[in-house]
Amino acid sequence: MSFIKEYVERQTLHRRNLLLMSAYGLCGAVLGAAAGPGRAGAVTANPRIAWSYRDRTNPYWNAIVSGGNAFVRSLGMPESALINLINEGSSEKSLADIQSLLSRYGSGVALAVDPNDMPNCRPVVEAVSKAGAYVSTIWNKTDDLHPWDFGDNYVSHMTWSDVGPSEQTARVLFDAMGGKGGVVHLGGIASNNPAIERLAGFRNALKAYPNIQLLAVQAADWDTQKANQVMSGFLTRYGDSIKGVHCASDTMAYGVIEALRAEGIEDMPVVSYDGNPQAVELVTQGKILATVFTNPYWAGGITAALAYYAATGAFKPSAEPHEHREFLGPTILVTTKDAREFKARYIDTNPQYDWKNFWALASK
Asked: Residues in domain Periplasmic binding protein (predicted)?
């Protein structure tokens, strides 16, 4: 359990260092010949591969980028060939970094990106399309934005169906509470698709448990430190009325557990989401009752692969059916009953994936 306290303490320093990494990844790359912004898209033998994401200190995003690195290695390139654009949860920085990348390399870019929030996806896609480059997105986009409306340049969008799995974790929590008592929910960034869906799943489960009392719902923005503060506030406000905690991500659960420990509470039922290695280990110990694995390693590699192989002309996105351009990633519920078996298969070693089999793990 000591890793949670250390994790909270390290975040500020790591974030500062990773901002420097982000700048190096963009500015330190060697310039190459590229079409200027606004030119028609054209295939290229060696596009620049980039991943735009929130935070490498977060285990989820670390796994995403590890998958991206694995894909780059599969091409015979060093991991340093992957350009890291770290936006620290800022949609403005996300778009600015991508625009800067496109101004350098034009159509010679294969970009994988989580736009950080739904509204930011459209300007990102429009910038990439205008430059004639190629982009694959994950998690966040508005419902009226579709890859097939942008020809080949908007290659694909992958998200996850979080409502059902989040409802499952809530049911695990409510059962552990004996079907009664007060519960609190800590959510992600309010405009994020997964935050919205995970809260919806939680609320769905509440309908089947009339003796569970919802005390509070509050966003902690996927952040461990903020979750720690939010949970501390809940404990001050509601005290012993809290009998269980529903977290929309593992990293927020770490902050919750640390806040509980500070009050001498070691046996509060807690559930989370994302299936990070540390969270799975806590599930094996019974400290977290359930989490949901979304296979970020595969998602990170396959999203980069889709953008790259579209950029090289290995396949033509516009020739694919719509279900290959907007699709769901995999989810696995991990509980105390199966956590050790799951850990051996997915955490202790990463499975080997065929990065050209783009939709192998896509949910049907």
From this structure: 49-313
> Nearest to residue 48, comparing CAs of 121, 122, 102?
102
For residues 53 and 64, what is the distance between their CA atoms, to the nearest angstrom? 9
Say yes or no: 15 and 152 in one domain: yes
Phi and psi at residue 326, in whole multiples of 5°? Answer: -130, 115
Q: What are phi and psi of 49, to 5 degrees?
A: -105, 130
Name the residue with tokens 């508005």: 142
For the chain, give the percent of residues with pLDDT over 90.
84
Q: How many domains does the chain fold into? A: 2
Say what the pTM is. 0.84
Mean pLDDT across the stretch 202-215? Answer: 98
Residue 101 and residue 219 in one domain: no
Write down the pLDDT at residue 34. Answer: 35
Other CB atoms within a 10 A radius of the CB of residue 30 amount to 5
Task: For residue 171, give its domain range.
Answer: 163-293
Residue range 127-131: mean pLDDT, rounded? 97
Question: Which has the closest alpha carbon to 214: 190, 242, 189?
Answer: 242
Half-sphere exposure of 4 (CA within 13 A, CB side): 24
- Which residue shows structure tokens 């990293």? 251
Q: Which amino acid appears at position 320 of this protein?
A: E
